[in-house]
Amino acid sequence: MALYKHGNHLIHSKDVAFDATYTPGTATPHSGIYRCTGCGDEIASNAGNPLPSQNHKQHGVSQGAIRWQLLVYAQQQA
Q1: What is the pLDDT of residues 55-77, one digit of tens each?
Q2: Positive or negative CA dihedral for 62, 68, 71, 72?
Q3: Which residues have CB under 8 Å from 16's CB, separation 6+?
Q4: C-alpha span between 36 and 67 (Å, rounded)
Q5: First-to-last CA distance in the chain?
Q6: Model confidence pLDDT, tens digit, residues 17-54
Q7: Domain ranges of the chain
Q8: pTM score, two decimals?
Q9: Rounded distance, CA 21 to CA 16, Å?
Q10: Which pLDDT value is given to residue 36?
Q11: Is 10 within 8 Å of 66 (Cβ atoms)?
């Protein structure tokens, strides 16, 4: 689970970007922190870079396939 200290730097959002899941190797759609829905591992990835592959951490049968879901969306100031 992602940790934070200064909650005043985070904004709660219901953006649909947080609902999608992605397979390993998919180009990261938004820079931020992604969580594997099977094992709970978290990674940081920049937009356009491929999400980690099957070998990020081997899953047991009970964990299912590796699927990445956006946890924290990193926004840049315009």
Answers
A1: 666 777 888 888 999 999 998 77
A2: positive
A3: none
A4: 5
A5: 29
A6: 999 999 999 999 999 999 999 889 999 999 999 998 86
A7: 19-73
A8: 0.87
A9: 11
A10: 92
A11: no
